[in-house]
């Protein structure tokens, strides 16, 4: 991985929460130390189809976290495919300190961002020091493949981490969908590393992968060197 790039955080759950405030602060401050702005970008795409009340809830939570951290919060209303092709939205992510994809439907994130100028700009900013975080659906969307937890089939991810697949909420998912989780682990035709990330826990890459939070990073298939 590009050693001059920004941090990446794959978060099992807890975006914008007190439990993850320290992580989000660290991600932002690392980017600032690399010359990025003290700007916290919220991307609600994964749940934006749930309506105005859901959008307002996430906007409020993100603003509260940014206020606690002491950062400028920018809510990026990427609700439909055309929103990722808007020049204004592309401009807003330039030189951002932290760009955060919150939870919901990972397939929706990939469908809306794939091939868009906004995604291209986000990757460009990450390569020059911006931190990128994805929680739950956001973490899943960053991989090469998105596992079909809500759908019956797998679908392409955004490919930021092409050889990784993620099961978020892993400590809860075992109780919710044990048969589905077992089938993912046993999938023999996949060459990807499969990670189970517990709630309020993250796998964070800077110079190497490290665990943040109270839970565990479970390596369910393949190899993954993570400092626990």
Automatic annotation (TrEMBL):
Keywords: Hydrolase, Protease, Serine protease
Keyword Protease part of the UniProt annotation: yes
A GO molecular-function annotation: serine-type peptidase activity
Entry annotated with the keyword Oxidoreductase: no
Stored InterPro entries: Class_I_gatase-like, Peptidase_S51
Biological process according to GO: proteolysis
Family (UniProt): Belongs to the peptidase S51 family.
Name of the protein: Unannotated protein
The species this protein was found in: freshwater metagenome
Species classification: unclassified sequences, metagenomes, ecological metagenomes
